[in-house]
Specification:
The protein starts with a helix and ends with a strand. It has two domains: 1-30; 35-139, Nucleic acid-binding proteins (OB fold (Dihydrolipoamide Acetyltransferase, E2P), Beta Barrel), CATH 2.40.50.140. The chain has a five-stranded mixed barrel. A hairpin with an 8-residue loop joins strand 2 and strand 3. The protein is an alpha+beta fold. It contains two helices and seven strands, in the order H-E-E-E-E-H-E-E-E.
Length: 140
């Protein structure tokens, strides 16, 4: 019984340290990680490169959108900030399997502001998120 109580106290201590650590990082201007990122507190598209390798919510205007059914996986590209091939920009990639779950074609979002959530990656020097489905994209 004593060891269970000790584990509970240690667990609570770790939780408090993590909570305080993320809060201090946010106050100091760091890039929060994981579930702290929501579309309530998104990262601007032009700062998303700072979050490569992390889960994040990224917001910005869709400067260009295209569906490329002849490419492998039939991707749709939403370019935030600037159209391809201009840089800087942030790319949202939606493969055909995920695209089929959208009520309207994602490229209809061109000209609108959106928030996307997912793992930030980098391809050819451009930060991107590959969307798993419509639940991870919110028009603003």
């Amino acid at each position: 019984m004593g060891s269970r109580r000790a584990r509970t106290i240690v667990g609570l201590g770790v939780a408090v340290l993590l909570f305080v650590g993320f809060g201090v990082g946010r106050l100091l201007g760091g890039v929060p990680e994981g579930p702290a990122w929501t579309c309530d507190e998104p990262l601007a598209w032009d700062r998303a490169g700072q979050a490569v390798g992390q889960a994040a919510a990224v917001v910005g205007p869709v400067a260009a959108a295209s569906h490329e059914p002849d490419l492998g996986g039939g991707p749709t590209f939403l370019n935030l900030g600037n159209p391809h091939p201009e840089e800087p920009r942030f790319d949202v990639v939606i493969y055909e399997e995920a695209r089929e779950r959208f009520e309207e074609p994602p490229e209809a979002l061109e000209g609108r502001r959106v928030c996307v959530q997912g793992q930030v990656r980098e391809r050819d020097g451009v930060a991107q998120i590959v969307l798993d489905g419509p639940a991870f994209l919110t028009p603003r």
